[in-house]
Structure formats: structure tokens, C-alpha cells
Amino acid sequence: MTSIEQINAIGVAGQPWGAPEKARWQALQQVQRSYADEVVTRVQALAGKWQVQCYGQLDYGDGQYRLLALRSQPWRQDLPVALVTGGVHGYETSGVHGALQFVEQHGDEYAGKYNLLVLPCISPWGYERIQRWNALTVDPNRSFVADSPAPEAAAAMTLLASIAEPVRVHIDLHETTDSDESEFRPALAARDGKPFVAGSIPDGFYLVGESEKPQPGFQQAIIAAVAAVTHIAPADENGEIIGDKVVAHGVINYPCRSIGLCAGMTDAPFVTTTEVYPDSPKATAQQCNAAQVAAVRAALDYALAHA
């Protein structure tokens, strides 16, 4: 990962980065793991039982990537869509592997109930470099907007726009990590020429609902399922998680669509974003993946029961 010292050495403090500074940041990013070996091979292993769709191609010069989706086979016009997205932030590992583990272990359980559409790794460049941004220093999870500056987000939105069946539920799998505070928030401040304001990282799992359609029963059903796997983040002394008011145990709300989050890209009535905490001494990588799987299953089951 990029250190604060390396970030602070880019450009002039208090001035937003231009093209030279962004290129310098990109040059610091090194491949640390393989999208082909760790993601593509697992997706391709499901071909036959599932339809594997290439919905886009990224070419960043230092890396070319096929964007892959898994679709129910057969795809039925009489069924609603359940959308699972992971790896919008490539460094958030359990989002990617939790999405794949869900398909591998439980996808068949929803045959005849949903058209499942799973995008396990929306940002493969970031996955390989364990980075929040893409190669353009753009956060894909603020880019699900018209004329998106992130080709990863644009490709996902184009895919969803091509699907006629209604999306009933969308669960977007994320993590909150210690590196958010040690690297990614300082990088954001430096890129935008703003002072860095220190925050805190909650210890535990939490959800981010859509403030325009909060669905409190839906959110709490997911929290209850995940609590059997890993611990839920408590509110801080201000009754907040990452600076936002807790509206129920382990739940905060954002205006997802208006700020360009992945969770806002459909009209699904049931929407949430998971946030796993992989750096907790009370959680293992396996628990983090299992928490994502539990969250997906609870979300899909609740949306079926409350159609």
C-alpha cells in the first residue's frame, strides 16, 4: 500500500492534484495479487451451471481486465432480479470472495425464485493493487452517475440498463478497514487539496441503508443473520458510526443515489451496503467472507418474504 509519506510527497500541500500528480500516484501502485488467478478462475469454474457474461473491458495501460458477471441459467422473464455486487473498492477483499462464496455454496437455493446477477469484482485494477481508487485516481463508489468518470461504474450501469426484469433487491458488499484511516482518507484529502481530518474506524460489521428507502425491517434482518457469524459495530459516544447517526443497531443511512454510490444505481426497493471490519482481532478472514454470505442470504430471503 501507499504510505502517508509517499502521498504527502506528491504535489503541493493544499493544492489539488493535476495530471502529473495523478500519474505519480499511479506509478507508486504495484500489483500485489492476481485477479486472473483469484477471481476469474473461480468465475469460469461456474460456467455451464451459470452464464458467465463479459460486460466490459478495462485497459489502463498497466493492466487489462475483462469485467465478468454471473447470471442465473436459465434467465426467466417472469422472475425479479437479485443483484449482488462486490469489489467496487478493489481492496475490500471479503466483498469479492464473499460474493463468489455465496454463488458457489448457496446460489442454487434461489433457482426459480430470482434471476441472480452477481458482479463479484467491479474494480479489478484496484483488486490487484489493493487500492480504493481506480487507475485514474477516481473512487468508483462515488461514480455511479450519468457520464461516470469511472469506466468500472459505467460498465456496470450499462449492464443493468440492458436488463428488462425489475431488480427487487441489491446488496453491495464492502469493508471498512484500518487503511481507510491510515491511507485512503489522507490520499483523498491530498488529491483534493484539503486538510486531512482524522476519524475513527468502528470495530464490527454494520450496514448502510438508502435514506430514501431505508427499509428498517430489511436492515435488521440482515444484522440478525450476520450477528450469528461476527460481531456488530456499536455506536460511538456520539451515537454515530463513521460520523453518521445510527438509526438502529448496526445501521446508518446515506443518500446513496444522490452521491453516486453503487447501491443507488437501481430502483430496487430493498437496498443495502455491507461493511465488514477485517482488521478486528475478533474476526478472521473466513468469518468476514461468511458474514458477507450471511448478509446476502438474509437480504434475498427477506425480499422474497416481503414481495
Automatic annotation (TrEMBL):
InterPro entries: Peptidase_M14. Residues 24-307 form the Peptidase M14 domain. One of its GO terms (molecular function) is hydrolase activity, acting on ester bonds. One of its GO terms (biological process) is proteolysis. SUPFAM superfamilies: Zn-dependent exopeptidases. CDD domains: M14_REP34-like (cd06231). It comes from the Bacteria. Belongs to the peptidase M14 family. This is Peptidase. The lineage of its organism: Bacteria, Pseudomonadati, Pseudomonadota, Gammaproteobacteria, Lysobacterales.
